[in-house]
Every structure is written in C-alpha cells, then in structure tokens.
Write a structure and sequence with these properties.
The structure is a single chain. The chain has three helices and no strands. By secondary structure, the protein is mostly helical.
Length: about 60
C-alpha cells in the first residue's frame, strides 16, 4: 500500500465532479456516464475510488433535477 499513490480525498472528488458537471453540461442521471468519464480524467493519477466517485456523481445529478 505504501507504493500506491495517495487516494483522492472526498473534497477533491467533490470538486472534480462539480467541474465535470459544468464541463459536460449534464443535467440528469442519464448523463452520468459522461460525467464519470470527465471526473475520472480530472482525477487521473490521484487513485480515486470509483465507487465514491459514482455516489458523488449520483448525488450531484440528483440535486440538478
């Protein structure tokens, strides 16, 4: 584990998701795939937990509707 890169913090994930939503213009959960792709690209090299990213994207898009 000491060789793995530091995992992205929840705050970093939240910021990346917000940026990805703005970048993609997503307004509903139908566009979750595009937001996930953009978020993971923004967090490249930060070893994000995909499950946490997915949950954050769902919450963000649920608030958009």
């Amino acid at each position: 584990e000491s060789y793995l890169p530091q995992a992205a913090s929840p705050e970093q994930i939240e910021q990346a998701v917000a940026a990805a939503v703005a970048e993609t213009g997503a307004t509903s959960r139908k566009e979750m795939g595009a937001v996930m792709k953009a978020t993971m690209a923004l967090l490249a090299g930060k070893n994000p937990d995909g499950r946490v990213v997915s949950e954050t994207v769902k919450k963000k898009l649920a608030g958009q509707s």
